[in-house]
Amino acid sequence: MLTVLRVHLPSDIPIVGCELTPYVLLRRPDKSATTDDINESSPIDGHFLRYKWYRIQSDKKVAICSVHPSEQATLQCLGCVKAKIPVAKSYHCSPKCFSDAWQHHRVLHERAAIAVNDNGNEEEEIFGRGLASSQSNSNLTSGATPLYPAAVAQRSGGETWFEVGRAKTYTPTADDIGNALKFECVVVDAETKAPVGHVNTILTSRVIPAPSPSPRRLISVSGVDVTGHLDLDGRTPSVGNFTVLSYNILSDIYATNDVYNYCPTWALSWPYRRQNLLREIVGYRADIVCLQEVQSDHFEEFFSPELDKHGYQALFKRKTAEVFNGNVNTIDGCATFFRRDRFSHVKKYEVEFNKAAQSLTDAVVPTAQRKTALNRLVKDNVALIVVLEAKFGNQGVDNPGKRQLVCVANTHVNIHQDLKDVKIWQVHTLLKGLEKIAASADIPMLVCGDFNSVPGSAPHALLALGKVDPMHPELAVDPLNILRPATKLTHQLPLVSAYSSFARVGAALGFEQHRRRMDPNTNEPLFTNCTRDFIGTLDYIFYSADSLTVESLLELLDEDSLRKDTALPSPEWSSDHIALLAEFRCKPRTRR
């Protein structure tokens, strides 16, 4: 007979919007084990599995801490109530929690004050209000109208059980917040429909809301005030402008508890992170999206279909697998998406640095040293280059009948810090390929990605300055003699880092706080990657300054935004990198 051997959940903490899929291990009649879903339509030996999910709703109302969502709240910020900030953000689990979070929390008050039209009200001092155990606040209840037609299963000891699902998987809703869930799994006789044997159950902790970071604003750098929250449904680019997002989303295979032990396990789990990342990416409403560290299986099963629902067409280039020795389906790569109503796909180029390494070694490395050279150069990194045609209003700014093309490169350069020569060579190889495209067409260029190179490094200098100083210390690491002479490390593309615009605008425009988030020596952000072990800038959006101009930029994060003593990823931000976004306008070009 079919027997349930084991049932468990990957995470004990359920989060609103994140699918729960229990692990159910079965023993078949032939004694073999399986995790297959044996449903009523395909029973085994006359038996199938029946699942039920319950919400266990207590008569006692519960508020959840906005900082530590697995903890019950004991304080409420009166300032949030008066400012009409969403009530969920007003709760804290202790006075220390409220005090530690104040630097971040006060931003909510400041933004709420800005949003209110000048009404003459003076700001009052903020205090924490204790929550009485008998407090009756309608915002703390679980709601009376669940999405699933709920039926009272039973009532006992001040608790009511509502049946909320009959599938193996369940996605908690806002109605479940503050309540525990119960999962039941039992073998059922297909003929009599009666349960057979023991009912296996799992009881979760209380459902918590998905933590939401403060929205990042789009800041004008062209002198026009367009500051506002990007996640507003009505935000659309100006006619002829378009936005580009670049984001290393942290592949699940790299997001281990050993590396990111400061991040709660539930917030590091892929079911949670994928939903949080999707909400963030969709909220930016970018016209072009360049993602790095996208696993092959996640692209096919999640990002491509989900972003398709939001009007995006998807292109993907998986890393090569000469070094990688894991499951081929989990190899990550670069994914580029574009809005079908704004652009159409013209051409796609794939850059495999392994192939370029083979060609290089065949051409310049002595036969006896080729194996050693390939071992150093072959690292599976790739780049995806896409040529798009604009559908919006400024096609042919200088010539109404001319097509407006844009070339977008998306790459993830090798991470190893002891292979600086490999990083420089990969960037140089990519730029030489882009030069060939530029030579064949009068086309604006965008070069996006995680370059694993800090500002001032040789790869960054090559991108931003078009050359590398022959005396640059990183050129000293060249065991294969592939970087010599240094004068060959040049390119003719007029590339400029989009975020350097923050450093170039005048203080009179009110950019002081954004300039403070920039490195004055390099004109780049202070960081785009923030972990316990490293904080610095690795990600960039470069553009061809002769054909594009930056109109606005997504504001950068700072210490207050990340909260005190916090690193990435976190419950609010699901990658160890931050997203970069720039709005561009095509310049009129001189007719040829």
UniProtKB/TrEMBL annotation:
EC class of the enzyme, as a word: hydrolase
EC numbers: 3.1.13.4
Entry GO CC: cytoplasm; nucleus
Coiled coil: none
GO molecular function (one): poly(A)-specific ribonuclease activity
Catalysed reaction, written as an equation: Exonucleolytic cleavage of poly(A) to 5'-AMP
Subcellular localization: Cytoplasm; Nucleus
Needed co-factor(s): Mg(2+)
UniProt keywords, alphabetically: Cytoplasm, Exonuclease, Hydrolase, Magnesium, Metal-binding, Nuclease, Nucleus, Repeat, RNA-binding, Transcription, Transcription regulation
Pfam family, one: Exo_endo_phos
CDD domains: Deadenylase_CCR4
Main location: cytoplasm
Domain Endonuclease/exonuclease/phosphatase: 245-577
Domain of life: Eukaryota
InterPro entries listed in its UniProt record: CCR4/nocturin_mRNA_transcr (IPR050410), Endo/exonu/phosph_ase_sf (IPR036691), Endo/exonuclease/phosphatase (IPR005135)
SUPFAM superfamilies named in the record: DNase I-like
Subunit structure of this chain's protein: Component of the CCR4-NOT complex, at least composed of CRR4 and CAF1 proteins.
Family: Belongs to the CCR4/nocturin family.
Function noted in UniProt: Acts as a catalytic component of the CCR4-NOT core complex, which in the nucleus seems to be a general transcription factor, and in the cytoplasm the major mRNA deadenylase involved in mRNA turnover.
Protein name from the UniProt record: poly(A)-specific ribonuclease
